Amino acid sequence: MYIKSMVLDGFKSYGTRVEINDFDREFNAITGLNGTGKSNILDGICFVLGIQGKQVRANTLQELIYKNGQAGVTKASVTLTFDNTDKKNCPIGYENDNTIVICRQISIPNNTRYMINGSSVNPKRVSDLFSSVSLNVNNPHFLIMQGRVTKVLNMKPHEILSMLEEAAGTGMYESKKIAAQKLISKKEAKLGNLKDLITEEICPKIEKLKGEKEKYLELQKVTREAEHWGKIYTAFSYWSLLQKVSKGEEDRNKKITELEKGQNAMTEKQNEIETVEQLISEIQLAMNEESSGKLVETESKLAEERKNEALVSAKYQSEKDSISAEEKKLNQLIKSVQDDKNALKKKEKEMSDMDKKYEKLKIEDEKDKEAYVSAQHKFQAISAGLFAAEDGSVGTLQDQIISMKSQISTAETECKQCEMKLSHIKSKIPEKKKLMQQTESDSGKDKQLLENKQKELKRLNEDLKRLSYEEGAYETLDTERQELLRSKQNAQSEVYNLLNRDRAMEFQYTDPTPNFDRSRVKGRVARLVTVKDPKYALAIETALGGLVFNVVVDDENTSQLLIQNGNLARRTTFIPLTKIRSNVMDGRVIKTAQNLVGKENVFPALSLISYNPEYQRAMEFMLGNIFVCASGDVAKRVTFCPEIRKKSITLDGEVYDHSGVLSGGSKISTAGILGRVQQMLHAERTFDSTAATLQALEKKMATLERNYNQYSELKHARDLASHELSRLEERLQKTTFFSHKQEYEDLVNKQAELEQKIKECKKIVKENAEKVKEKESNMNNIEGLRERELENAKKEMKRLKDKADKSGDLWKQKEQEYETHKLEINDLKKAIEKGDENVEHFKEELNQVKSEVGKLEEEARNVKERVRILEADIKVQKDVLNEKNSEIQRHKKTKDKCQIDIKKLTNLVTDIEAELKNVEKESETIQEKITQLEEDHTWISSEKSHFGNPDGVYDFSKMNPHEVTRKYQKLKEHRDKLERTVDKKAQLSLRNEENQFKEAMTKKSIVESDRGKLLKVIEELDEKKKIALREAWVKVNTDFGSIFSLLLPGSQAKLSPPAGKDILDGLEVNVAFGGLWKESLGELSGGQRSLVALSLVLAMLLFKPAPLYILDEVDAALDLSHTQNIGQMLKRHFKTSQFIIVSLKEGMFSNANVIFRTKFVDGNSNVTRTVNRKN
């Protein structure tokens, strides 16, 4: 069976239908230029045969369709017509068909169809057809691709033996042997698993289950004992709880008696306290009538004069400090202006430097963009088939080689020139060095001074770096301090002004006891209240009335201490937080009022103020039962509503009382006081905050001052040393020594440059020589080189793009910095102009402040004298009051003793009440336990009458409760432990494990029997393999020598085992010329070695010839002179086989009977047929 014709339609490069007719029965050749579709004809044959993967040079079936289905062609088909007239070698089942037409068709997306003689069949049917005529598509030895001949050249002896085994068909024997060995391994592994199962699992499990059975029996016994002792334990617990209930009732009655006795004693002490308080009130009333009015008036005057004294003194001191501060600030301002001028010079110099850097960045950005464009051109050139040189230019490899050789010549010339210059310089250096040494002594002193000054300057710079101080830090802090001093003085003046206006708001007292805690005195009510919205301020002030001047304290003891020993300047009413009762209207009343007049017209007074939660009781006491209303009509309706009846106040201060009292129409004495108090509190907070900040700042300045002084000294010394160093350097540059030294150093530097240049030239020569060699080598593999160059160019283009983007970003960033610098210079110029104006302004203000200080000093002396006179008058009045205070103190001691007794009785009663609650709670707990036991153990109700009976089962007098408990707990723990570990199904599991043991032993016997049979089969297969291999070796060896001697007359070839070994250990190729055998194939030329490999491949194929052979450019590695005899060889040795060969060498296809030539026309491949007249 051989191919008569084939049709390609839409397959690879054959976009249109192409018929190839009249294939020769023996020798057909296909030739044509690269890319015209000659190998696609072989791919089409392999496609029909069912060969998959890379043999048809496609990753997916869609790639086999013309232009991947993107050119309007959506399917591809290949049809082969076979001559089947030779009935001896025809496929099974096709003896009656003289022609067999096989077609394979694919279409998008991945639909495949096979047809034989027009009927659709499955791929297996086609594979079986070809296999029946020795065309095994799963192992296509009839297909010889380009690399197969080259691969044979590098084969080792055992690989050549593998080829022989494949040709002889002993691979089937070997596969069966391997399968048998794998089966033996599996059987041995299974046998080992069975042994492990028996020894490691089944036997231990049987032993374990026997032990579990014994534990189960023990569990049953322990459970019975635990139930017996558990019942006794429960009965004893129940009986014990009953005893505790009886005792608890007795304790309760006893505590109730003690409680009644303590409460009676407390009542008696309270009555005694009330009597003493009455006496104290009468004495205090007499004291107030006699002299309190006058004392309050005098103390009020003293307080006012003291405030005036403090205010005048503070103002005088403030003005003095202000003069000092203003003078310092003036100096600082002058220094600041000078610093700005210095900074302006520095910024202008930096601006000049920045111009150069900005221009440099701009140039670099343009260079990077040009490099990126160049890389794009390079990539496009390589894509077009050219190659990139090292300098970025593109061209052919030959052009690059010529360019590199030119560079080598240039570098060699430049190297020689540099060597000549170097020789001249080396001769001049000793002469210059001698002149320099001769004049060195003249400048020795200046040189030493220069070195010393350089060391000094270096040391000063290092000292400045080590000093942890930033330039200008101290001056900045000092400026902040002056600002804070002014803010503090302003806040202090505001506080004094507000205090003078409302002196009654200041609560002054002396500590009544040593170390008195002043946090116990909260302050006047007006200072504790904040009105949320100013429009409600008048209403809240009216509601509070005189209460705004009351003082809130923590308890009544504090108020008593202040009254007795606080030296109060006026009569004061106190509100003790622990003594007053809060009085807040019910939420339902609030809701009724809001429903009556609307939420927007009536508000509880408490909701309109904010305060510290600590003062809530005081606020509820004062405002808890008052409404604030939007108008008089609203207030009247709310006040006199029967369901409300609460006091109401309008926004204008009118008061409505449900008792019938109406007030309003005149301005109250406290009008606006809450607003002024809030101003005062805000001013005090501002003063405290500013003082704290100022203190912290001054502390920081004190810490920094030492470093500031050191820095100033070091900076001055450094500037002086730098100036002296510059003068020394200028003087040295004018000396003869310095001139000779400069010439000498220039020559040495030039020598180093020339030596470096010589190295670079030699490097260029070496690198270009290597590159020339590399380029000449690449000429032989131009396709692979093009792919690598294309990939490298792509990467370089991406790198240069990233670099260009980065340069552009950096340039834009520096452009922004440049503009910012310009703005800073303009700002400095404006600041200098403004600073000069401020200096003049400060000088004028300073002169005005100095004139005011003298007046304030005289006023301070006058106020001080008035304070002294008032203090003497107050002392006389207080001596009179102290006598009355002594009598009050005696009564207070009696009251304090009663209060201590009440406190002790209160604690006692509280303890008794707590103990009584504990007794009652314990009784309830015990009763709950009794009930729980009766619910958990129903047998208690029937047997509890026997609990504790003598000589009975529950005779607890003969039992040790602790022993019963211990024994029950021990049995219970033992039972629980056994229940966690005992397997109650152990008996059933034991039977299952014993059955499993018997089954495993049976399987073990079967596996051992199978293993013996398999070993016997392997021995038989090995013997058959040896016989078949020897027969194949003799036949292939004969054909190998015959084919090689025909292809290369006068030569011989054979396959022989390595020295001292058998053919089963491997085979080597031996070649002889003129009867002289070569020691290795390395002595042969490349073409001769390729002929050896091709002869060996053909000899292997000849062992079991197939009806069809396909050779794809197998002569690629052969010399032209060696291809001429291939046609004769094929006709002589392969008389029954059809050959289809793709070749580019005329020596090969000129021997073919029929030549098919491919060409590319209008994007499609075409084929023309030529009959070789020579044949």
From TrEMBL:
<dbReference type="InterPro" id="IPR027417">
    <property type="entry name" value="P-loop_NTPase"/>
</dbReference>
<dbReference type="GO" id="GO:0016887">
    <property type="term" value="F:ATP hydrolysis activity"/>
</dbReference>
<dbReference type="InterPro" id="IPR003395">
    <property type="entry name" value="RecF/RecN/SMC_N"/>
</dbReference>
<dbReference type="InterPro" id="IPR010935">
    <property type="entry name" value="SMC_hinge"/>
</dbReference>
<dbReference type="InterPro" id="IPR036277">
    <property type="entry name" value="SMC_hinge_sf"/>
</dbReference>
<keyword id="KW-0547">Nucleotide-binding</keyword>
<dbReference type="GO" id="GO:0051301">
    <property type="term" value="P:cell division"/>
</dbReference>
<feature type="coiled-coil region">
    <location>
        <begin position="259"/>
        <end position="364"/>
    </location>
</feature>
<keyword id="KW-0067">ATP-binding</keyword>
<feature type="domain" description="SMC hinge">
    <location>
        <begin position="519"/>
        <end position="639"/>
    </location>
</feature>
<dbReference type="InterPro" id="IPR024704">
    <property type="entry name" value="SMC"/>
</dbReference>
<keyword id="KW-0132">Cell division</keyword>
<keyword id="KW-0539">Nucleus</keyword>
<dbReference type="Pfam" id="PF06470">
    <property type="entry name" value="SMC_hinge"/>
</dbReference>
<protein>
    <recommendedName>
        <fullName>Structural maintenance of chromosomes protein</fullName>
    </recommendedName>
</protein>
<dbReference type="Pfam" id="PF02463">
    <property type="entry name" value="SMC_N"/>
</dbReference>
<dbReference type="GO" id="GO:0005524">
    <property type="term" value="F:ATP binding"/>
</dbReference>
<keyword id="KW-0175">Coiled coil</keyword>
<dbReference type="GO" id="GO:0005694">
    <property type="term" value="C:chromosome"/>
</dbReference>
<comment type="similarity">
    <text>Belongs to the SMC family. SMC2 subfamily.</text>
</comment>
<keyword id="KW-0498">Mitosis</keyword>
<keyword id="KW-0226">DNA condensation</keyword>
<keyword id="KW-0131">Cell cycle</keyword>
<feature type="region of interest" description="Disordered">
    <location>
        <begin position="429"/>
        <end position="449"/>
    </location>
</feature>
<dbReference type="InterPro" id="IPR027120">
    <property type="entry name" value="Smc2_ABC"/>
</dbReference>
<dbReference type="GO" id="GO:0030261">
    <property type="term" value="P:chromosome condensation"/>
</dbReference>
<dbReference type="GO" id="GO:0005634">
    <property type="term" value="C:nucleus"/>
</dbReference>
<feature type="coiled-coil region">
    <location>
        <begin position="687"/>
        <end position="936"/>
    </location>
</feature>
